[in-house]
Fold each of these.
Amino acid sequence: MTYNFDPDRWYLPKCEDDGFIKIPAGEFRMGSDQKKDKEEYKDEVPSHRVRFSPYAIAMYPVTVAQYECFVQETDYALEDDWKRYNKYGNHPVVAVSWEAAKAYCRWLAQCIGKPVALPSEAQWEKAARGADGGHRNHHQAGEQCADALGERA
C-alpha cells in the first residue's frame, strides 16, 4: 500500500527532505504562445515572463494515507462523500476543499518544521516545465520533475 512512503512519518516519501524539491530562482515564460501551442486555452494567453525567488514543491501529490494522518491527528471533519472517492492509501487524495487543503498544509508545516503551502498557478507551472523553463507538457510530474530539476530541497 505505501511503497517508498514512511508510515512513521505521516507517509511522506522516504527520501531526502520529505519529497520536496528545490525550484531555483529565476525567470520563465508562463502561459502559451498561440503560434507554437495549438491546444492552448484562452486564459493561457498571452504568454508572459514571471520571476521567482527559490521555493520548494512536493514531488508527489498528497496521498489518501497522508491526508488520513492529518484527519486522525487533528480530528478534521471530512466532507460527506470523502470516503467514497478516497479508498486507496497510495492514491492521490481527491474531494478536498480549498480550505481543507490549506489546513493540511498548516498541519504538515508544523509536523516537519518547514513552511508548506499550496503552490500558486505560476509556481506549479514553473515546476512542471523543468529547470530550463521550456514549453513542456503541463502534466509532467514525479520523477520526471525531480530529474529535470536535479537538486532536492
Amino acid sequence: MICCTTIDGWLWRWTLSREPDLTVRGDDDSIYLVQHHVWRKNGLLNLYYHEIRRSDEGRDLHDHRAFNVSLVLTQGYWEHLSDGRRLWRRPGQLIFRRASTPHRIELAKAPTGQDVIATTLWLKLPDTRPWGFWRQGAWLPARQYEAEQGRDL
C-alpha cells in the first residue's frame, strides 16, 4: 500500500512544475488554500490537491456544492461540525461529506503559534446545490454571506 506521505511527495513535486489552479486568500491577503486540479474539471469527478495553509477565519461553518471525500495526506487538522464536535482528522483518514454537511477546518499549531500546513486530496462529485455558510442555524448563500462580511467572492 502506498502511504500518504509518498502520495503527498509525488503531488508536491508535480505541483512545483505548474502554477496553482486556484489560490484563496483571507481578509489580510494571506494565503488560505492553494488548489491544483489533479483530474481536470469535468462534469463527473473532480480531484484536487489542496494545501491548506491556515485555519478557516473563525467564521461560521460552511458547506459545499457537492458530495465530497477528503483523504488527509499530511499533518492532519481539526474539523468542527454543527453538532459541536471537534474531530481530529489524521493523515491516511478518509472523510466522506454530504454537500449540506456544515463544517470548519482548524489547523494544528506549531510551538511558535503558526498554523501547521496540511495537505489533502479532495474528490468532488457533480454539483447538486449552491454552497454557503451557516449562521446561528440558518443557511446563507455564500455570496450573500461574504457581502454581509464586507468581502467579495
Amino acid sequence: MINTATLPITDRETAQQFTEALHGLMINLTQHMRRETDALKAGDYSTGLTDAETKADLVHTYRTSLAHLKANKDSLSRFVPVKLDELRRLNASFQSELQVNLAAVTTAKAVSEQLLTRLADKVSAGNRPKTYNASGSMTPTSKGAALAVDRAL
C-alpha cells in the first residue's frame, strides 16, 4: 500500500489515491475493533487483546491520515467531494464502533480487576490470624507467599 498520507494533494488522482487508502484503512480498523469487541464480549480476553501491535499501527496510520486530511481539506473538497462525504459517513460509523469497543474494553478491565481483587483477598485470608493465644493476642501465622499483580493492560 502506498503511504499517501505524506503526498501533497494537488490533483484529482492524488486526492483519489488518498481517499481510497483512507477508506481501506478505516474499514480495516473497524473490522479489527469489531473482532476485538466480539472476543471481549465472549469473555475471550487473551484473543481480544493479543493483536495490540496491529491495532496500534492502524491507529497511528489513521491519526496521521486524519491530520493529512485536515491539512488538505480544501483540495479534497474540490477534487473528490463525493468521496469526502463517503469518508464522513464511514467515520461516523467508525466512531460508533469505537464507542462499543471502548465499553467492551472498560467492562473487561473492570471484570479482570474484580477477579484479581477476589483472588488476592482469598490468598490473604489464609494468612490472617483466626484465634487468640493465652496472652490475649492473635496467634501469629506462618508467612504465606505474596501475590504480585501487574495491572497494566
Amino acid sequence: MKTHFTPNIRPACEQSIHDCGEQVEKVERAIDCIAAEFHEILPLAKASKNGALYARDSVQQTSITKQVRRIYEIAVNKGIYIPREYVFIDQTVTGQQHSRPGLNQLRVALENQSVDILMVFSASRLYRDCSSLMQFIGRNSVQGGIQIISVDT
C-alpha cells in the first residue's frame, strides 16, 4: 500500500539551521524530530521494507537536515521505514575521505544485512570519485543485494 506524503511541517523541525558549520547537537535534534514526524506517518508495522539513510554535507551542498527530510519524504512514499538508528551522517567531511564516522557505521549496518535499502540524497554524498563509488555499489548492491536509491537524480 502506497502512502503519499503531504507536507505537514512542524515549526520545531524546520528551525533555521545554517548549511555551513551546523552544530552536531542541533542537527541531531532536528533529525530526531524529522524521524519522529515520519514514523507517525509510516509506522514500522505498515512499512514494506526496512532502510538506512546516509547524508553528508559540504560547504556548497544541501544541508544534512534538508537531505534527511527529503529522503524521509521519498521513503514514506515508497513504504520504506528508516529507523532513527539507521540514519548515518557526516558533517563537513569531504567525500574524498574514505574513512568517515557516519560512513563507517553505515558499512557495519550493511555488512550485518540489517537493511534492504540504502537511501542517499545523491550518489556524490557517498563518494566523490567514481572508482570508490562503483566499488561501494558493487560490494553492497550487486554482491550484498541491497538496493541503493539516490533521491536527487
